[in-house]
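User: Okay, second chain of the day. Same drill as before: sequence in, structure tokens out.
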Amino acid sequence: MTDTPPLPKSLGANPLLSQWVRIHANGCVDIIPGKVEIGQGIATALLKMAAEALEVDPARIRMVRPATGDSPDEGVTSGSQSIQDCGRALRHVCAEVRDLFRAEAAMRLGADMAELGLDDGTLIGPGNARLSYWELADAVSLARPATPGTRDVLRTGTDLPRIDIADKVFGRPRFIHDMRPDDLLHGRVVPPPRIGSRPAPGQDLAALAGAGIQVVADGAFIGLLSPDELAVERAATRLREKVRWDGGAPLPDEASLHDWLTTQQVDPVVDQRGEAAAPAARTLVHSFLKPFIAHGSMAPSCALACWAPEGEPHLAVWTHSQGIYNLRADLSVVFGLPPERIRVEHVEGAGCYGHNPADDVALDAALLARAVPGRTVRMQMSREDELAGGPFAPAMRVDVEVDLDAQGALSGWRHTIWSNGHSMRPGRSKASTLRAAAQIEGGAPWPIAINMPPATGGGADRNAMPFYDIPARTVTNNRLTVMPIRTSAMRALGAFANVFAIESMMDEAAVAAGEDPVAFRLRHLSDPRAWDVIREAARLSGWGERAAVEGRGRGFAFARYKNTGAYCAVVADVTCTDEVRVNNLTIVVDVGEIISRDGVINQVEGGAIQATSWALKEAVHFAPEGILSRGWESYPILRFSEVPAVTVHLVERPEAPPMGAGEASQGPTGAAIANAVHDALGLRITRLPLTRETLIEAMELGQ
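Assistant: Same drill. Structure tokens below.
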């Protein structure tokens, strides 16, 4: 007798069927996910999974926008977990709902359940007797907990058109920035230049703001309100130039960042695998550096908020946060309100794939709205504040020592990280982590970013443990407990830097062993799925068949995201002149069961293009007085004219559980580009981004 499989994780935490599905007598179906759409196409993929399990036409389904109190609490939409968590939960729920309706129909038709066919929600019995979900909607209660077990689900293998694209292509209002309710007030905030800065005393903020502008000042929080958006924008510009600030924690010197990371107070965690190997015949050593990186969302963060004008305090917030329940928890702490008195509703905004200022601007909007009960406040960040004022992906230093035995095989690996924590999302601590929570009078102390636990993939140590077969492996993760620059989650977390370091060292070790880089990797892998993606990437790219051309290079890299998720291998072709240009990326991925081919390809390609931008261009510049990267000129990102040709091949695994695709390609892409630069120039670049200045520095150092 086999054990009954437990409920999927998200369903176990939100067990009522009615939390996920509503069947209506008019023939419509509501699907209520807890994961949010941030441009990754997840709403379409979830709709497909629900339609297949219910066996209804997808056109019947309405995807309900997540909102606290109405939607299941699935935490944060992050970590490439939407399909694994929400998708699996919805598939289970919808299959159980289907079976409940089948049982009701069988009873009424006097037939066995197995005799009933099902076509677009209509159950068909002997003699062509029919009953539909819609006719039985009032008879079948879904206010019951899901039951564990396995149910058959129809899998069509057919992609659905993205349900969000038409609005975006034709410019129909869909984004939070488009929301313009009646009686709207526009808000802006003038932020301090550094953590802990306070406005110098004796300043007349109302006079500086000008006539017709309402100033909302509380400690270091300075907000402005006006029914005229242009007027409030101009007032904010004046105050940014004229307000004087005192104090604040000075930032480190950017030029000494590599050393600064190793001289701060840390909280170390050591993970050791295997036993000490025999004495090494050769040891390779390199130190790698990834800078602070900004999210660089194309549209500045925005939120709307409104306080009830009378009676018990009630706050409504519209936001593009990736975690509406987590945000509600922090708003509850800041305002001292029970969570049930706060409604947070998700509205699509500019995608960020990480903790950008979307949560911060929601609190800004709520603080401004509190000053004008009954009025809705639309708070939008400036481009300057969006780039300089949100949490950054932490800078990371990674020191790697690799031992080779007499046969050229890997025998030992020591991987040491210095980094701030990679998570300061709201809702995970007793005090609020939102920016303004530390600025208002008597507010929370500035928090120190944490790392996610290893069981959920880790933070700075994500993908730090090599996936290769090595007798002795040690990872030491030194989390800095000093944080003058605010850090939190960005797509792939520490995996981008760790895979860059690991795959650079794998190429170095292959050279030392006198072996082809692809063959060297395969020699140190026993996972057959890893073998498949690596060999397929080599085959599709014609690895080893390219003639050498001066200034051109080809690089290879592989990783399994979190060492438990999707497999990804990347071949990068680059041209190196006075700068690095990525010409082509050939990518092979294994995500298990493929829910949406188009969605997986889009996610992998998008992640690779973003990683190309990180690898070639992106770095936050700063000085002791504050952040200097405040516009696209000082924080350049990849231009459309610089986007490489990307080919994505999917390995078919219909029998395997589905895995997320959104963060599989970042690490291997950056590493493959660095390895291609080494192939072209003979330089082992260990510091990102791979700018002209970085190349010149490496040449001068003879790396």
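The radius of gyration is 27 Å.

User: Thanks, on to the next one.
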